């Protein structure tokens, strides 16, 4: 699958760039990686809120052989085959994957340190 083919595929969604990544490629929209390409299959970013849709389609998560011989499973799920022929529906799924990727890249709240943490520990909860 060439970068031009991928751009055509996601044309209804928004401009997508392709960057080489390990043995495949990362697909980016607005500078955020929302999908990966591996062995001519596209995997979209998923989380607890979107995983069920992939499972209902009979799709599986991306996995690879990690060091030590164990399988590593990532939070990217194989895109349903029917989406390759349905640009409007693909745009909907890609939008969800981009939202998941954006949420995943948000900085996590840091635990309080010092006096604020001690004060919070002493404050009784109601």
Topology summary:
Layout lengths: L2 H7 L7 E5 L2 E6 L2 E7 L2 E5 L5 H6 L4 E5 L5 E8 L8 H19 L9 H8 L4
Antiparallel strand pairs: 1-2, 2-3, 3-4, 4-6, 5-6
Q: What proportion of the residues is helical, as a percent range?
A: 25-40%
The number of helical runs is 4
Mean pLDDT: 88
Uncertain stretches of 5 or more adjacent residues: none
CA radius of gyration: 19 Å
List keywords for this structure.
single chain, 126 residues, alpha+beta, Yope Regulator, Chain: A
Q: What can you see in these coordinates?
A:
The protein is α+β, with helices and mostly antiparallel strands and 126 residues long. The chain has a single domain, classed as 2-Layer Sandwich (Yope Regulator, Chain: A), CATH 3.30.1460. 32% of the residues lie in helices and 29% in strands. Strands 1-2-3-4-6-5 form a six-stranded antiparallel β-sheet.
In short:
This protein is α+β, with helices and mostly antiparallel strands and 126 residues long.
């Amino acid at each position: 699958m060439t970068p031009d083919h991928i751009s055509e595929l996601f044309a209804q969604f928004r401009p997508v760039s392709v960057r080489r990544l390990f043995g495949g490629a990362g697909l980016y929209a607005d500078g955020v990686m929302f999908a990966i390409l591996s062995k001519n299959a596209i995997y979209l970013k998923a989380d607890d809120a979107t995983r069920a849709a992939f499972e209902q389609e009979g799709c599986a998560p991306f996995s690879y052989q990690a060091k030590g011989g164990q399988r590593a499973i990532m939070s990217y799920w194989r895109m349903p085959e029917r989406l390759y022929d349905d640009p409007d529906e693909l745009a909907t799924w890609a939008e969800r994957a981009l939202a998941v990727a954006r949420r995943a890249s948000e900085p996590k709240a840091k635990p309080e340190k010092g006096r604020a943490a001690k004060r919070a520990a002493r404050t009784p909860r109601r």
